[in-house]
Amino acid sequence: MRAAALWLAASAWLLGCDTSPATASRLTLTPNENKRPTPLNPAPSPVAPSQADVKRDVTSSACPNDMVLAEGNYCPNPTQKCLKWLDKGHYRHWRCAEYEEPATCVGKKSSQRFCIDRDEYVAPGGSVPLTGRTMLDAERICKAAGKRLCLESEWNFACEGEQMRPYSYGFARDSSICNADKPPRVGTDSLLVSLALPPGSFPGCQSPFGVRDMTGNVEEWVRSDRRATRGVMKGSYWIPTRNNCRAGQRIHGPLYSGIELGFRCCADATK
Questions:
Q1: Quick check: pTM over 0.85?
Q2: What is the Cα–Cα distance from 118 to 269, expressed in whole angstroms?
Q3: Disulfide engineering: 207 pairs with which of 5, 6, 92, 211, CB 3.0-4.6 Å?
Q4: For each successive 10 residues of the chain (271 residues), what is the average pLDDT?
């Protein structure tokens, strides 16, 4: 049984995704797994405020203090061409070292204006993002806070901005900017160990709107635009996988939960 569990954890890393629904119960949260591990990379220096940051300060009254305003033109179908693949073999379809800049849009853009949590949801009294919850749990928690679970299109736009950045921070992959590209760790109980870090641990890991940790750290539940009852897992988590804004994990149903999976909330902006 121990050998099978180790094989399962290694397979999840190589495939860049979670284990099958049948093994979902083995990735549940335990009291010791939500403790903060030692960061494997030092946090980069804070980034100087951009024009988008200045605009956010002016329009911040449209959203609660723990949220930011995402406003602009969203492209449903961007063309993001990879110029250099980071890996060979299987990973060639997953991690891109550098994308062509600028990205282009196929079709018509749509106007977006909404509020989104600056950080992944942390439970009261906690320090790291809350994990081990189903999509239904995430919806309930967001609703109790007067918010809602984000749509996939909203999450995409908040991550990439009007520039259609493949990664929340830009067009070239940099493993030092976000909590990503970390080898998975397996505990003495043969279960996956959380490497999630508190919000703000990587100051440079933010989108054009100032939304943090949309690349790596923990994967996040969102609601599918096409099927209201279907969830999508976005951003991936700390392992070496795609971690880009458009990538989405769709093989698990809304009742899946795992130590690698969290969420953040959205809300309508004040007019």
A1: no
A2: 14
A3: 211
A4: 40 39 36 40 44 45 96 97 82 80 96 98 98 98 98 98 98 97 90 96 98 98 93 95 92 95 97 77
